[in-house]
Amino acid sequence: MSRYPKGYRKPPDSCDSCLAWGDFSGRLCQTCYMFGRSHEAAACVGCRRVQPLKGEYCRLCWCQARLNAKMATGMPTVNGEVMAPWLKGVRHHQLFFVGLHYRRGSALTALHRIRVREASRRPPPVSRSRPSSDWKQLPLFEQVPRDYCRLDPAAADLTNPWLAWAKYLAQRLAETRGWGWGIRFAVNRGLAIVLTGYTEGDVIRHSEIFTPLRALDLRVGHTITDLEEMGIFLDDEEPFFECWLAERLEGLAPGIAAEAEGWTRVLRDGSSRSRPRQQATVRLYLNQVLPALLEWSNRYDHLREVAREDVLAHLKTLHGRHRHDRLVGLRSLFSWAKRSGVIFRNPTSRITVGQNNYAVLQPLLPAQVDRSVAVATTPAVRLVLALAAVHAARVAQIATIMLDDADVGNRRLTIAGRARPLDDLTLKLLLEWLEHRRERWPNTANLHLLINNQTATGTGRASNRWVRGPLRGQEATLERLRVDRQLEEAMVQGPDPLHLAEVFGLHEKTAMRYADSARALLEQAAEADP
Q: What is the pTM of this model?
């Protein structure tokens, strides 16, 4: 739980882990926060503090060792074997500001800038085609995993025809997707590491190249894009959903775990009778039913043994919203089991869920809206604020708007498949953002309306976190602005659910909820009016 009240902006402070001074939220700076998520905490060998450790040393000791090595040799290094003597020689710590330390190969190092400048002056690679061979040696054994960590980009075999073809494809991708010279240099360097000694028939796996490329701070995603274009890449990375599902099903009886896994996969992938759900919804459903499944796993081996009395006894321990959500999840699970023939009788049938007693939606105060407007200082944030406050667009809908959805000539904007007229304010903010987008990323191939530094070099959409990030911590968030816009429409035009459903594309129950809240607010205003 945060130490500061909602809406309060924390002043600049010192990080509790690396002691760096800067402007960040929470106890830790962003780098230390991510460092702590991937490393276990213990007593540091250097400073004796209990902190997340990487090779027995905390991040503060690593930063000081890199600084000492760079001052002595002039070259930044991150390799564990090379850094071992420098880590042991740390006797003091030089305090620093947040964001001053970077890994080897960072675009801020002088050596990298010199190489990028030299690479920009070189002529583009000549046209190449896939290398052909007259014969191919069939593999006798399965391909032995290669250790790319021992390869040096300076010792790459530049005469390899596969490397020449890869660089030509990288040049084409850079032109079509608007990659800058820094990205091109990093991709060519990564290709030199990966394709050294490559022969036809070899397969480059994600698990083999991810760690060495990340250690050199190279562009893993862009390099993989080029390797996929060549047709020699195999993505053997285990999906996050599979790891999460296996972890959540631990502790269940084998039969119940298998049935819960089948239901979860149907929720995610869909079936002939159901549509696929988002992963966030799937995780929510499984987390809701897990306590009940863990309780029944102590007595039963399969869901077919669960009776109606077991469900009622479990629901008696819950009240309010918790009972409602648990019963909704259990009804979904047993309904799937009944359709699939896993059980003979649904134990949750005729157990009423009940109606939610929603509170009356309250409009935002003008001061709350003004504070959010004051935070919107960039063209992207101002446009996002207008889309939520004027057009009642959700965060995911804003992130998925394409350039073709904005018809400036006819003053129409398509949001989630519904064409809406562009008012003067939204049109002005849209034109400002398009001009900024054209100046900032003139060569991008991304067709989404809203892009940032990460998505401008690809084709994917911006994340929901990035869209809602500038207004995080404000009372008038994007979601509350969207709700306030729909509530205002109901109060101005009258509490008519059909009108709300037609204007905003709401479900009939959601439209009725807004109409009821507007009616209650209007009645309160009429009673208070002398």
A: 0.66
By the 8 A CB rule, do 431 and 153 touch?
no
Please write the tens of the pLDDT for every residue from 244-302: 999 999 999 999 999 999 999 999 998 888 889 988 899 999 999 999 999 999 999 99
Beta bridge partner(s), residue 74: none
Q: Residue 60: exposed, middle, or buried by beta-carbon count in 10 A (0-12, 13-18, 19+)?
A: buried
In angstroms, rounded to a whole number, what is the distance separating the alpha carbons of residues 254 and 259? Answer: 9
Supply the DSSP symbol for 452: -
The domains located in the chain, with CATH, are: 13-88 (no CATH), 112-123+148-234 (no CATH), 241-340 (no CATH), 366-516 (1.10.443.10)
What's the CA gap between 351 and 411, in Å, rounded? Answer: 51
**Lookup result for tokens 């964001």:** 99
pLDDT band at 154 (very low <50, low <70, confident <90, very high): low
Give the single-character DSSP code of 461: P
